[in-house]
Amino acid sequence: MLQFRNLTRAYELGGERAGVFGVTLAVPKGCLAVLAGPSGSGKTTLLQLAGLLDQPDEGAVLLDGQEVSSLSERERCDLRLRRLGFVFQAFNLVPVLSALENAMLPLQLQGIAEVEARRRAAAALDRVGLADRLHHRPGQLSGGQQQRVAIARALAPDPLLVLADEPTASLDHAHGGPLMDLMADLAAERGATFLVASHDPAVIARAHRVYRLADGRLVEAA
Ligand SMILES: Nc1ncnc2c1ncn2[C@@H]1O[C@H](COP(=O)(O)OP(=O)(O)OP(=O)(O)O)[C@@H](O)[C@H]1O
Ligand SMILES: [Mg+2]
């Protein structure tokens, strides 16, 4: 369960105030939730707070009931590595590493032994339908396949929470829906919470829950 409790993060720039203001929401385990809203409405700001990459001015982020936004930098970093998964618009794969090596990286950073990391990364790649592409490098994969490697990498450490910022934006239209279907299935079978920022209608249509933002405020939750 991911909770935002009255979350505010304000940016002051040139006399203008932007950011997110007083956002409260709760996304249960197994749920694929989408943060929707126009450009500048605060989607990425909220994902960064949820991902413990940034800290709120007011309010709190809770994971499974524990307040995590006020932990020390070291504790947040540790939690990020072990229990959070990140999927980015531009995939952020390491070009000289194979799909398998990319998916192994976060496990090896945690100190998991190579044999075990290899086993878990291969299982995650198999789950996203890439069992026959383990040794391809990102440049040898299609955009949709690269995004599935990124999902396998996020999934391999068995995260509580997976965060994705515009994960379909670099894909052509046909790939967006299936990618979301995969994430919905993964959220349910892993009991993880998925939080995706997007303004893609194909993405929003497949969400279990949609939170709409406007000017940094939550204006609709459905
Ligand atoms: N580091 C920063 N300094 C100042 N203002 C910022 C900063 N980061 C974001 N903002 C402002 O906060 C608001 C929300 O930005 P955010 O990136 O969260 O929007 P978004 O909904 O993700 O937009 P997009 O759909 O274009 O990605 C915007 O008005 C933006 O200009
Ligand atoms: Mg954004």
From TrEMBL:
Cross-referenced SUPFAM superfamilies: P-loop containing nucleoside triphosphate hydrolases (SSF52540)
Signal peptide residues on this chain, from the entry's feature table: none
Occurrences of domain ABC transporter (ranges): 2-221
Keyword DNA-binding carried by entry: no
Domain of life: Bacteria
Classification via SMART domains: AAA (SM00382)
Single GO MF annotation: ATP binding
InterPro entries on file: AAA+_ATPase, ABC_transporter-like_ATP-bd, ABC_transporter-like_CS, ABC_transpr_LolD-like, MacB-like_ATP-bd, P-loop_NTPase
Keywords recorded for this protein, A-Z: ATP-binding, Nucleotide-binding, Transport
Protein name, per record: ABC transporter ATP-binding protein
